[in-house]
Amino acid sequence: MIRVSGYDVASYGEMIDCEPRMGVYVEALRRAITPGCTVIDLGAGFGVFALLACKFGAGKVIAIEPDPSIELLMPMAQANGCADRITVIRDVSTRYTPEHKADVIVSDCRGTVNLYEHHIATIRDARERLLAPGGTLLPMRDTLRMALVRSPKLYRTCHYPWRANAYGLDLSAGQSFAANTELKAYLKPRSLLSAPRDLAVIDYRTVVEPNVDSTVELVAEKDGVAHGLLVWFDAEIAEGLGYSNAPGQPELVYGQMLLPFADPPRLKAGDRVIARFRGNLVDRNYLWSWDGKVIDGQTGAARNPFQQSTFASRVISKQAAAAGSNLAVPQPSVRMQIDADCLAMVDGGTDQDGIAKALMERYPEQLPTYRAALDSVVSLLGRYAED
Amino acid sequence: MTDILQAQWRISDQAIANTVGDEMVVLHLGNGTYFGLDPVGKILWEALAGGQSPADACDTILERYDIDRATAEQDLRQFLGELAEGDLILQA
C-alpha cells in the first residue's frame, strides 16, 4: 500500500495552465520580490511559486507543503538553476519555525471558494509567526459574493431521479439530500436573476475568524425560477492585481459554488430574497448553511422560507454521529488491541514484515493471512509516516 | 421552579439537523459536537422546530407508542435537559 498525493500532478498542471490566475500571481511576485529577499511558498504544491520567486531574484525560498508532490521541486529547481536557494519543508506550516522571517509569503490554498479547510488558520499563523514586520502577503484580500441564479441544467441533479424518473420508482427520500448538496458551477451572466452582493471581505492581513455569517438582500431583476444562490470570490492578490470568478469573467480553476433551493421559488422582478449565508469550519471541512425567505415585491408578504445546509446532504447514521461526539464512551475492541500491539512493537529496529508476522500469530482469527496482517500494519503506521 | 416540560423552547440557530428515516443527528455549528436523536427525540425536535411545545410532543408520542404518560414525560424531560445542556435549544 502506497500513500498517494491528495492532488495529482495533472491537477497542479491545470492550476498553472489557468493563465488569468497565474498571470496575476506572476506579476504580484515580480512586484513584491526585491533582490535577495526571503520568500515562503505556503502550501506550495510542487513549488511553482518558489521557482518563480527565484527567477525574480529572491535570495532564499522556503517551500512548505505536506503533500508528497513537493518532492518534484528539487529536480525542477536543479533544472532551473536555483536549487541552492530553495529549502523544502515537507510538513504543515504550523509546525515550522523559521530561522529568518519571510519578506514575502505567497499561497493559494483556496478551493472553489476561498474558505477551504484550514486556509484561514494557516494564513493567520503564517502572518503572525513566519512573516517579517512590514512583509507582503500574497494574496492580500478576497471578497465572497452571492447572487440569485436560474440554471435548470445544473439543478437537474436536485430533481432527477428523486422527483421524477423513467423507472416508475419513488426515490423522493433522496431529494432533500441532493438539494442540500453544493454544486460546482461555471455559470454565465444570463443565469443571474439578481445583482451580486458582497457576503464577506476576507483580508488576509488581518483575518482571524475562519467562519463567516452574513445576511444579504438580493433583488430579482427579472422574472424566473430561482434555482439557488451562487457564491464565488473576487481576488486581490496585491494592490491593483486581481481576478474574479464572477459569471462573465474568464473561467478559472476555482469555478463557482451553487447552493440550490430545495423548493425553487418563482420570482418576479422586484421580489427580494433575504438570505443568510454561513460557512462553519467543522472538523476539517466547511459546512455551508443558507436560510431565509422571499419577500413579495408588491405585497411585502414573506413566502418560500428555506433553511438548508450541506450537513443535510450526507446520510449520517446515528451511530456514526454518536462516535464523533465528545460524550461518546469508547469501548475496547480486539481491533484496538491489534493496533496497540502493533504500535508497541515499533522500536526503531523491527521491520514491518516482523511486526506483521507477530500480529498474525497473535490474532489468527482477525489476521488470517500475511497480506491481511501487513496491510493492517502499513495502514496504521502510514498515519505517522509523514510526522 | 418551572417544569422544563411546561417551558417554551426554540431551536438554537447554531443547531442544524440531518434526518435519515426515523432518526436524526443534530450538529452544533459553534462547537462541532453531534447529538443523535432516536425516534422519540426526533418527535420532540420536530415539534419544537414547528413552534410546538414539549407537551404537544408528548401527545404525539402517546399516540404513536404504547407507553404511559409518566414515562413519556420523564423521557422528554431528560431529552430537553440534554438538548439545553448542549445549547441546541433555548428557552423562548
Quick overview of this protein structure:
The complex is a heterodimer of chains A (387) and B (92). Chain A is α+β, with helices and mostly antiparallel strands.
How does this structure look, described?
The complex is a heterodimer of chains A (387) and B (92). Chain A is α+β, with helices and mostly antiparallel strands. Chain A has three domains: 9-108, Vaccinia Virus protein VP39 (Rossmann fold), CATH 3.40.50; 141-320, Hnrnp arginine n-methyltransferase1; 334-382, no CATH class. In chain A, 27% of the residues lie in helices and 28% in strands. Chain A has eleven helices and 17 strands. In chain A, strands 6, 7, 8, 11, 12 and 13 form a six-stranded antiparallel β-sheet that branches. In chain A, β15 (272-282) and β16 form a beta hairpin. In chain A, α10 crosses α11 (370-382). Chain A is flat and about 80 Å long. In chain A, 39% of the residues are buried. Chain B is α+β, with helices and mostly antiparallel strands and 92 residues long. Chain B has one domain (9-87): Outer Surface Protein A, domain 3 (Alpha-Beta Complex), CATH 3.90.930. Chain B is 42% helix and 24% strand. Chain B contains three helices and five strands; from the N terminus they run ββββαααβ. Chain B has helices at 39-49, 54-64, 69-85, and strands at residues 9-11, 15-20, 23-28, 34-37, 89-91. In chain B, strands 2-3-4 form a three-stranded antiparallel β-sheet. Chain B has a two-stranded antiparallel ribbon with strand order 1-5. The longest helix of chain B is centred in the C-terminal third of the chain and has 17 residues, at 69-85. In chain B, 37% of the residues are buried. The mean pLDDT of chain B is 90.
